[in-house]
């Protein structure tokens, strides 16, 4: 049962090979067994999930099944879920029970999905390792060949990616502000897509950096990701940045092939000191696409190298403001103080972890009087140049292919001494968020130590279909079938 | 003549600009669907957006934008077809988001002008710098508990217009006239009810002083003054304070102050105020506000007639003095009332009745024009009875008082009380004859040259006729008999 | 541009984050490292470039003026750490 993809499990449910209750029970069992080691879930919902499964079985019996009827999923703990504690990986939200359901999770429920629990994540989605969660780090189900030391699953959607990789869920929601879907997907050997900014509603998703945040799925296969995104996406009048554009049939796009497509290779993504396997895998990916009928074109994205620095102005600036609402007055944890200011300062110092505090301080500083022009305004101008780079590239190509990350998963506790070393993880993913483009990470091979590596496909705005077509072509060519040691059914 | 203040070192001039916060009339809030109505139970008109719950997002209300545009048009201002919302970041108990969404860098309305008329009949143009939309905060209650403040977020997120004037105001009178005019225009437009008691209009007053020919000196801001009279008092009190500081060799410190009406003085708001650094930046939850010129034009085509135009029309069409016209135009309801009364009638007579007995009656009874005991139709009916000579002017006043008392139409009262004017010359002649017979001595005096006795005879005849004689016919009859 | 301890304290105060003396030094080092790294943006020629605020390339939608929300008194208060009847409660604010 654990070997089935989401789409295959859906077919099996429809064919009555097993019930939604049986499927859900199996996954709840996997969570019970593996979560103590992996810590992919902050909150599990066994009773609610079984109740949802029973309802799904009724719908299946009646032939009224939605596209995700009976499919057990993990929900990143950044999505507000009505009546279910939502922490954003932070101590400050430890007591928070949202009285509302995010649009994305409401869409999944509408389509019959079952929620197994809330997935662990870097605090407020700020991190690339899941080490900043207030609920303990997540362990990557993969280990290096002959080395049992625990690795990070990437972040911030580390719990979602680990849960899917370890088969503790058939798929999961995630969010991506600078790479938080694609980097953990790459580290965990699964597929993750960040759709175009505006494709999925941000309503009810705890905000990190509003102009960059975008929800998307992590899944075992490209087609699974297409099915999940098709359900998550859609126009939402409650989000002013939501695009009123019809959601196409992403799953159909997976079957399109790449014949005649022009695939761009941005030369600035070739970094000095990058592991040779990554460069080799990239070339391999291009060869696969060429063999499948695509034309490979060299392109230039000259401002790529400034993406991270730009991101580390824009994202903390927005975050410093977005996180002002966590003040211990209307919801969340409170640490008392003698007066209101002291209450705020104590609540926020105790409630936020070190990385969140660092980013709030950076964000406050770059927006403060006298520094706004030098930092924030300049960053917005560089951001405009980055968008221009992509726009010009897409005049000649249909999609771009790059590595997803500059390395495979690293050890827990590594890269912790200097924040910038950690930030460099997102060097290939961040520019996409700056420009609001859709991009997918698809597993394509292993590094020398047997860890998965991903390739990134970047598309034009609202052209996820081409991204799915290219992703599926790589998936087919790569035939990536290696599984992590730590997984259900192993 | 320019308003100045005398100090020990010479003559000082006031420089003043006003920032007026006007609550937009709308059903729902600026960025949420919760009700914007006043006076509900605490925290009932609060959405998760207004309480800044995690993941909540703002969506702008079209009507609030339309109201700002209407107001801009009413202030003869530029409408910016591209504007933007910024966040103003600061922590406060009644500011749930930790920031106020406001238009800092790119307001929806640019430069405009307000023309005010001063007591001496002169007019002055006060420049409007800008008008922008922003969110109101919630309310803190400090007097309910010994150790805690309570927070009610019903006001949180209600739309405000901030209307900023140029520092063109030079006297308390001008400050008062500007605010009065602004309030009048907003009420005419229906964009703000101008109710300063409920806080739906309040002013921050910027004041500095200088000597003739100088550049601006340091100014102070007096926050949240909530009546026009207090604004005028605050301007004067603050200007005098600053003159004192300068003349004592001190420096006026730029700061925020409060006006204390009971002591008629301003005082510093906080001795150790946090240095504010609002860290404005474009709100990433919102997109630029882009308006179509055609939409603005349509709003413009539907604007009501505004006070200045109405005043001009009243002067032109009804032959009123500018002063009378301004008084009748002060409130839309008064102007409408007047037009109902005046149309097809003696417009000047209608104006005299409204500004005389009618306003006096409203004052005396504590009523407003909306709940006046005398309706416009009834006042018009009274004037009709005067015009067709059914009653004379003296009786009309008696009838009007009865109308105030009973709310009845003039004709009903005239008939019930038998106040119809007597035009029957027979009856008048008889009354004249009786009066002259009873006052033979005075008749003799009159004929000997004491012509001023004519008025006495008129009075006696009218008295004999219980006031109902037609004055012209009585005069005529007397003249005939006495000649 | 480099932060001194006083500036670290000032931005911590603006951010309403309590920070003690030992943290100031650590945070000063972290922030200065990040800021000096960020300064690579000074190499970029941004003359005449219009700043890009967000990734959504459209004009803002405007909603109709209809009351669709509110009347959630219990729900909006249900998570409050301290409340008194229909109000949120905080330590007394002296104005």
Task: Please explain how this structure is put together.
The complex is a heterotrimer of chains A (490), B (483) and C (95). Chain A is α/β, with parallel strands linked by helices. Chain A contains 16 helices and eleven strands. In chain A, helix 4 (103-110) links the parallel strand 2 and strand 3. Chain A starts with 5 loop residues before the first helix and ends in a 12-residue tail after the last helix. Chain B has 483 residues and is α+β, with helices and mostly antiparallel strands. In chain B, strands 1, 2, 6, 7, 10, 11, 12, 13 and 14 form a nine-stranded mixed β-sheet that branches. In chain B, strands 5-4-15 form a three-stranded antiparallel β-sheet, with no helix packed on it. Chain B has a two-stranded antiparallel sheet with strand order 3-16. Chain C is mainly alpha-helical. Chain C has a domain at 5-42: Orthogonal Bundle (Histone, subunit A), CATH 1.10.20. Chain C has a two-stranded antiparallel sheet.
CATH superfamily of the domain at 6-261 and 472-478 in chain A: Amidase signature (AS) domain
List SSEs of chain A in N-to-C order.
HHEHEHEHEHEEHHEHEHHHHEHHEEH
Radius of gyration of chain B: 30 Å
Instruction: Examine the coordinates and then state which fold CATH places here, giving the name of the CATH topology of the domain at 6-261 and 472-478 in chain A.
Output: Amidase signature (AS) enzymes
How many alpha or pi helices of chain A? Answer: 16
Number of helices of chain B: 15
The fraction of residues in strands of chain B falls at: 15-25%
Poorly predicted runs of chain A: none
* Count of individual beta strands of chain A: 11
Overall pLDDT level of chain B: 93
Spell out the key features of this protein.
heterotrimer, B: 483 residues, alpha+beta, Arc Repressor Mutant, subunit A, 3 domains, nine-stranded mixed beta sheet, three-stranded antiparallel beta sheet, 15 helices, 16 strands, elongated, C: 95 residues, mainly alpha, Histone, subunit A, two-stranded antiparallel sheet, 3 helices, flat
How is the topology of this model organized?
The complex is a heterotrimer of chains A (490), B (483) and C (95).
Chain A lengths: L5 H9 L5 H19 L2 E4 L1 H17 L9 E5 L26 H8 L3 E6 L38 H8 L5 E6 L5 H7 L2 E4 L19 E6 L2 H11 L17 H4 L8 E5 L9 H16 L3 E5 L7 H16 L17 H12 L2 H14 L5 H21 L5 E5 L15 H5 L6 H6 L3 E8 L5 E8 L4 H15 L12
Parallel strand pairs in A: 2-3, 2-4, 7-8, 7-9
Antiparallel strand pairs in A: 1-3, 4-6, 5-6, 5-10, 9-11, 10-11
Helix pairs in contact in A: 2-3, 5-6, 10-12, 10-13
Chain B lengths: L4 E3 L2 E14 L38 H13 L7 E2 L2 E4 L9 E4 L9 E6 L5 E13 L3 E3 L6 E5 L6 E7 L6 H18 L11 E11 L8 E6 L2 H20 L8 E5 L4 E4 L12 E2 L6 E2 L2 H9 L5 H12 L3 H8 L2 H11 L4 H19 L10 H12 L5 H14 L3 H8 L7 H14 L1 H8 L5 H12 L6 H12 L1
Chain C lengths: L4 H10 L6 H18 L34 H5 L5 E2 L2 E5 L4
Antiparallel strand pairs in C: 1-2
